[in-house]
What we know:
Blueprint: H1 3-7, E1 16-18, E2 21-23, E3 30-34, E4 41-46, H2 50-67, H3 72-88, H4 90-101, H5 105-122, H6 125-128, E5 133-138, E6 141-149, E7 152-156, H7 164-175, E8 179-183, H8 190-202, E9 209-211, H9 216-224, E10 228-234, H10 237-249, E11 253-257, E12 263-266, H11 272-284, E13 296-300, H12 307-315, H13 335-350, E14 354-357, E15 376-379, H14 386-389, E16 396-402, H15 405-414, E17 417-418, E18 421-424, H16 428-437, E19 443-445, E20 461-462, E21 465-466, H17 473-479, E22 481-489
Parallel strand pairs: 7-8, 7-10, 8-9, 10-11, 12-13, 12-18, 13-16, 15-16, 18-19
Antiparallel strand pairs: 1-2, 3-4, 5-6, 6-22, 11-21, 14-15, 17-20
GO molecular function: methylmalonate-semialdehyde dehydrogenase (acylating, NAD) activity
Keywords: NAD, Oxidoreductase
Family: Belongs to the aldehyde dehydrogenase family.
Amino acid sequence: xxxxxxxxxxxxTVKLLIDGAFVESTTxxxxxxxxxxxxxxxxxxxxxxxxxxxxxxxxxxEAFKTWRKTPIGTRARIFLKYQQLIREHMGELxxxxxxxxxxxxxxxxxxxxxxxxxxxxAAAIGNLQLGELANNVANGVDTYTLLQPLGVCAGITPFNxxxxxxxxMFPMAIATGNTFVLKPSEQDPMVTMRLVELAxxxxxxxxxxxxxxGGEDVVNALCDHPTIKAIxxxxxxxxxxxxxQRATLAGKRAQCMMGAKNxxxxxxxxxxxxxxxxxxxxxxxxxxxxxxxxxxxxxVGEASRWIPDLVAKARTLKVNAGTEAGTDVGPLISCAARxxxxxxxxxxxxxxxxxxxxxxxxxxxxxxDGNFVGPTIFSGVQPGMRIYDEEIFGPVLVxxxxxxxxxxxxxxxxxxxxxxxxxxxxxxxxxxxxQEDIDVGQVGINVxxxxxxxxxxxxxxxxxxxGDLGPYGKQVIQFYTQTKTVTQRWFDDExxxxxxxxxxxxx
Length: 507
């Protein structure tokens, strides 16, 4: 046992899911799951052994033999039941998420709901997993395609959306006929495990969904395992790049959604109140711990005069524990995350940016040990400053100025990241030019966080994404299936045979 185990022998343990059973890990490496508002230890999570990872993969491989042949309607009905169960347990799931992750209860419900939308999409798999048919492509010859599952797939998910992002992954993979091994974030795995329990209750057979916990060793084991065919990842650029390179080197498909620096471009003709509300919500919601947070504002021309109004708007936001009514900004996930954000704020001051609003060390009565940083705003920010070049992942908004829309577009396109961007304007012509010329995968027009609904795919680009196909939507059907093309000819009468054909074409 490590020191944590010896000090906390009675703390509840997070289980592994292997072959339909929730099992206690035999590892000697355990980590605490900590409430970020109070520092209370909620549970301990195991870092699974290699043998446990192998067992989970083996269970998934065995289950694939029968699951891949399960009728598509049967698969769809499981997810119809699953979405019903998630709805019935929404309050419980949100409370569990808030306790271990820190976001406000309304935001936690939003986290679950956005994942629920993907589950609903998975229930429509009968309409999504359709092949193509061309009749009589040659004399009496038909060609058609089958979208068949790959086999065992795996997912690695981050701490900031412990409900939504697992639900991006395993429902679509399983609905298309694959089996799955999930590795949730070790920082907040409890709500994920409750969702997994509900998935089994909905009827997912044993071995079709498995869960292992851990850190780098478990990630590497999933990347290297010869039985796993595809890996989906959401998280930091550093880890995502590692996962993509290691997984693809091992011959796997990989999709990695990674870091960002999302710009909100504000033109002077934008609706002022609507824009200020959107910026404050998108920059400081979830304590800035969103890969789609609008962490960077580019104020064009006269819009730069709005900075005092934006500061005033941010001052109205309430910093408190996510369980408290009226809270707008909860704690960061860990003490280390808080220290990193505070260090970046200090770096912004040192490098010459103007600190318009300092959110460090806010007073939160009753939660003195929480990992809190309040809304923080910098103006006068330039490329080359750490607060611009790095993803802060905290409630910090950095403001840059641009003389024109063209200058703003050039600034955004010069940034290596391409997850999301937005423009605020009442000009249709300006909005159209922005959407055409901007080199970013997801664009909002008067929408600060342009994450698409599941009818479409998440389409981050450039340094924010590795892999051609995004999670959920139509693209993920291609990611989780292999296209098989069948060319067939049937003869009514042997006299139709034209004899030996030594050419490549059909006749």
